[in-house]
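Predict fold of Haloacid dehalogenase-like hydrolase domain-containing protein 3; 102 aa.
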Amino acid sequence: MLRQLKSKYRLGLITNGPSNAQWEKVHKLSLQQYFDIILVSGDLPWEKPSAQIFEEACRYLNVHPENCIMVGDKLETDIQGGIEAGLAGTVWIPLGDSRLSR
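Predicted 3D structure, encoded as tokens:
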């Protein structure tokens, strides 16, 4: 799914947590190949749901927030943050949703 999306869109990943731990996950899963920008809150002065981290991702991607969507698994950080940042839309996919494997 990410490979298909990457072929058509600019993709960003925003993750909360300590820098070392989050980057270890990114590298272990080889996620860097799918994303144009990866922001780890441990490297920045903000974390989700702060609108600033979403705005920073938009700046890196050179897109306006109203032309972005947020797909996330946490209502309180991913979805609320995307709404507060003025993104065009948010999509909540609860962790463990088996429909993603189809």
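The beta strands are 12-15, 37-40, 69-72, 89-92.
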